[in-house]
Amino acid sequence: MHRPDLVAAALGLFASVAIIATPAAASPCTNLQTLNLMHTTITSATDVTGGTFTPPGSTPITGLPPFCRVTATLTPTADSNIKIEVWLPENNWNGRFLGTGGGGYQGVITYSELATSIQTGYAVANTDLGTGSSGCNPLFCGSDGNKGNALAIAFGDPANPSTGLFGHPERIKDFGYRAIHLMTVRGKEIVKAFYPRAANKAYFAGCSTGGQNALMEAQRFPHDYDGIVAGAAAFNRTHLHMWALSVWQDTHASATRFMLPAQMPVINKAVLAQCAGQDGGAKTDAFLTDPRDCRFDPKVLECKGGEVPPACLTPDQATTMRNYYLGAVDPVTGEVINPGPARGSETDNVLALGLVFAEQLPEPAFDGLFYWVYSASFGIPTSPTNFANFDFHHDIGRVDEQLAPVLNATSTDLSEFREHGGKLLMYHGWADPLLPSQASINYFNTLVRNGRAFAQPAHLGDDPALKETQSYARLFMVPGMYHCSGGPGPNVFDALTPLVNWVEHADAPETILATKFVNDTPSSGVQMTRPLCVYPKVAKYNGSGSTSIAANFTCVPDGHDFNEMPAPQYGP
């Protein structure tokens, strides 16, 4: 207990003696607290040496090497409030800097990314993207079933609208592109001050919003990174969110349009019965290798005779599924705004964030950005413009005019990134029910088309423009994987190491080995392995041997599939 009276008495008795407090021993890490960086406040710099770190409000992370944890707040504008963390291995640094992304509207630091990265020797950074003051859950920002939380990402605290993003265009810019760039710049400066030398190479890896961050970096700040991993990139954000709104609007058109969770496995079983094996994979696969070959029509499951749901579909439910696959469409022109999910993505697992998750929400999934445009009135049922009444012919322009220049990473001019030697490795799960997998194919194909000054040859694999594009950008589609992870197919793989080998040793990846663990739990053992092939190749079963072993599959060209593209003004 602190006693001022005793302190005063001691000072009186020993007035002639100099009293000097002994500070804690400084270290290269704690010295970073005095580092002076532009628009940056270092809020802490601490040595973490016990092997365990407990993130705020979470469970401990164990097995960590000694590291220096730096936290900082970046304020590039008077209204910005970007939080970053940089973790620096104190031993065995591999000489590389790694920027990492997050998910949803972020709002928190992704500590799992930091922990995994320092365990493999990287100096690593992560950011809340400047949305932390909203207090939103990064998974359900904008639509977690609670109206207050639905408004959280739009307004922050519903009782204090100034803490969120509505009416704060600079914070929207932070979320869209600035936070990741400044995290990168400041992170590299912190690395150089700590070791003290600059990183030899810089890499970025992210999925979903992290994938959007990745493509924003390649497009807007092409010299930030030598290599970039972009998984399931939410790069066409305004139109992706319009698709989510269209799914919600379609299923809420009437009570008869709702799907039952138990119908999803029924539909998926029918899809596999019709299409498994015809795309190069094995007939016994619980997933499709290339769903573009599948022409399954939900109408075949309409109830006949004495059948009743969930064993079959009503005509209205068959319409719901056809619209789900089709995507968001302008009802007047018929133009595609955003493609829908591939066949084979049907699941009753709400954690996969698919149709049965989206339709049960009182508002569309991840709807926060509509509030940024329309304000609080958008969520009021009596408002002329709200979720149910959003017009996919007239209202798209208003959203795009305000947000697309800031949020959409749709530029396919990567010339500056390519010219400085940058490498881009993209991946996307074919069974992604949240962010339709066709988007990544459309982006990559547009890169190829941009490099083609002549008609496409009969075989895409013979296309010089494809080879030129693959000299700096490669796409790997992941059969049977949901959004960024999980799913019935092999869904665990390392995309970063092949990227590093490509950048540092000119060893361009042709395949990446993917693993499916029993119950998606590594400790339960390996269920199967399968090669992920550089697009447009697919893994084809050799015809003999176990279909659970990757060596029994060969990557072969497959360039004759139909690709559903959005209209040019909404694409790629």
What would your notes on this structure say?
Helices cover 29% and strands 16% of the residues. With 572 residues, it is of the alpha/beta class. The longest helix has 26 residues, at 169-194. The chain is globular, with a radius of gyration of 26 Å. The termini are far apart.
Provide the succession of SSEs: HEEEEHEHHEHEHHHEEHHHHEHHEHEEEE
The strand line-up of the biggest sheet is: 1-2-3-5-4-6-7-10-11
The secondary-structure class comes to alpha/beta
Shape: globular
Note poorly predicted spans.
1-24, 135-163, 453-459
Integer-rounded radius of gyration? 26 Å
Tally of contiguous helical segments: 15
Largest sheet: 9 strands, mixed
Percent strand equals: 15-25%
* Beta strands, count: 15
Roughly what percent helix? 25-40%
- Average pLDDT, to the nearest integer? 89
Cα(first) to Cα(last) distance is 65 Å
List its salient traits.
alpha/beta, two-stranded antiparallel ribbon, 16% strand, 572 residues, nine-stranded mixed β-sheet, 15 helices
Spell out the blueprint of helices and strands.
Elements: H1 4-13, E1 40-48, E2 67-74, E3 82-89, E4 96-100, H2 111-119, E5 123-127, H3 147-155, H4 169-194, E6 201-207, H5 209-220, E7 227-231, H6 237-251, H7 263-275, H8 315-326, E8 327-329, E9 336-339, H9 355-358, H10 368-374, H11 396-407, H12 415-419, E10 423-429, H13 438-450, H14 464-470, E11 473-478, H15 496-505, E12 511-517, E13 526-533, E14 537-541, E15 553-557
Parallel strand pairs: 4-5, 4-6, 6-7, 7-10, 10-11
Antiparallel strand pairs: 1-2, 2-3, 3-5, 8-9, 12-13, 14-15
Helix pairs in contact: 3-10, 4-5, 6-11, 13-14
